[in-house]
Write a structure and sequence with these properties.
376 residues, Rossmann fold, 3 domains, 13 helices, 34% helix, globular, binds adenosine-5'-diphosphate
Length: 376
């Protein structure tokens, strides 16, 4: 039976979302709903729109755009509060909802303490939610067997050294999950699988009997990745996996994660406190502030068109390689004064672009936006 694929218009006009566009015939087999094809749209507008919606050369992603079809994870009104002393509690996650699609990398960014790690850990069922739900392949994770779930969901941590048992050989570290799930039939097969995994992550298979301290930082992170891969998961939470590494090594680890994603169809939640590296790996990302999500969109869209003041301040805080320019920019690490009400819920203001806007913010956005569109 034939399958129908719903594809999203990759270069929609903003007006397409404000006023339902009619369908235009592009060819015998292709129809498109966009005001851009309307006869009254002048060629000048078309040119402007082209500049507005098409990426610059330098921004073009190395990989083709992903099509978001199958939800792997659905997070629904998730809350996680921790007790702090006798009476107080910390709202580490305060009602967040978002989806992660199969095969994508969803970045989660925000300053330290905003709730990113707690989100990652709650998604893989290391923490029980205070309220709300996480669905994995359509099933509520609280109804699933924890051991079975952890075969399908793995984590990679920031500090590979403290997450690897120093008294175990690399072989035993990598094979731990395989041991738990009985993924081999004899010792030889176990050894071979570990060697294969070491090769996959770019390490020398003959080093399987060494200990973690015999490796440098980037290599240890590769061991952490091999350990996660050993159980052939579908989903990996990478919690600041490159933050502790030298800048020169960071790109290597990012490239390795990308390569593995392509080869194995993996889905990642990639957690980071700054945006510079997230840009290179994420298909979409969410910005967290004080336990809430304030903006979610495709990476390219968020970089070009950030709407929430906090996202703008995060983007402004990406370091510029020229120290002189950097000095003149001043301190961008503080949140801006004119933050919208962070208790506002996310609303979709553009296909796939969600922002925590109050009704007033949204009204102002629409007004500003209509001014910018001239269909003569
Ligand atoms: P991030 O990963 O963005 O740095 P975290 O998720 O680690 O943020 O922390 C969010 C908030 O929850 C912080 O205020 C942190 O102190 C608190 N927190 C995190 N884990 C625990 C815990 N196990 N017990 C108590 N408080 C915690």
């Amino acid at each position: 039976m034939g399958q129908t694929h719903k594809r999203r218009n990759s270069a929609p006009l903003k007006i397409d979302f404000l006023y339902q566009p009619p369908m235009f015939k592009v060819s015998e087999t292709h129809q498109a709903a966009t005001w851009l094809l309307h006869e009254k749209v002048s060629s000048n507008v078309k040119k402007d729109v082209d500049e507005m919606t098409r990426p610059d050369d330098k921004d073009i992603l190395e990989e083709p755009k992903k099509i978001y079809e199958e939800k792997l994870i659905k997070v629904d009104n998730l809350k996680k509060y921790f007790k702090a002393g006798q009476k107080n509690e910390v709202k580490a996650i305060d009602s967040i909802s978002f989806d992660i699609f199969k095969g994508e990398t969803f970045g989660l960014v925000g300053e330290s303490g905003c709730g990113k790690s707690t989100t990652g850990r709650t998604l893989v069922n290391l923490y029980n939610p205070t309220e709300g739900e996480v669905f994995f392949k359509g099933e509520n994770i609280k109804d699933k067997n924890k051991i079975e779930l952890h075969k399908q969901m793995q984590m990679i941590f920031q500090d590979p050294y403290s997450s690897l048992n120093p008294r175990w050989t690399v072989q035993d570290i990598i094979a731990e999950g395989m041991d738990i799930h009985g993924l081999y039939s004899n010792k030889k097969e176990r050894q071979n699988q570990v060697k294969e995994l070491l090769e996959t992550v770019g390490l020398n298979p003959s080093h399987a009997t060494r200990y973690p301290h015999e490796f440098c930082g980037g290599q240890r992170q590769r061991i952490g990745i091999a350990r996660a891969l050993a159980v052939e998961p579908d989903f990996i939470v990478a919690d600041e996996p490159i933050s502790a590494l030298d800048v020169s090594i960071q790109a290597q680890i990012i490239n390795l994660l990308k390569k593995l994603q392509k080869e194995k169809g993996l889905t990642y939640l990639f957690i980071a406190h700054d945006l510079s590296m997230v840009k290179h790996i994420s298909d979409r990302f969410g910005v967290m502030y004080q336990g809430r999500l304030v903006e979610v969109a495709e990476s390219e869209e968020l970089y070009k068109n950030p709407l929430h003041p906090y996202t703008k301040s995060l983007l402004d805080s990406i370091p510029i390689p020229d120290p002189k320019v950097e000095k003149e920019r001043g301190d961008f690490t503080k949140p801006p004064e004119n933050l919208s009400d962070i208790n506002a819920s996310l609303r979709e203001v553009w296909p796939g672009h969600y922002v925590a806007y109050t009704d007033e913010d949204y009204k102002a956005y629409k007004e500003k936006f209509q001014e910018g569109i001239s269909i003569s």
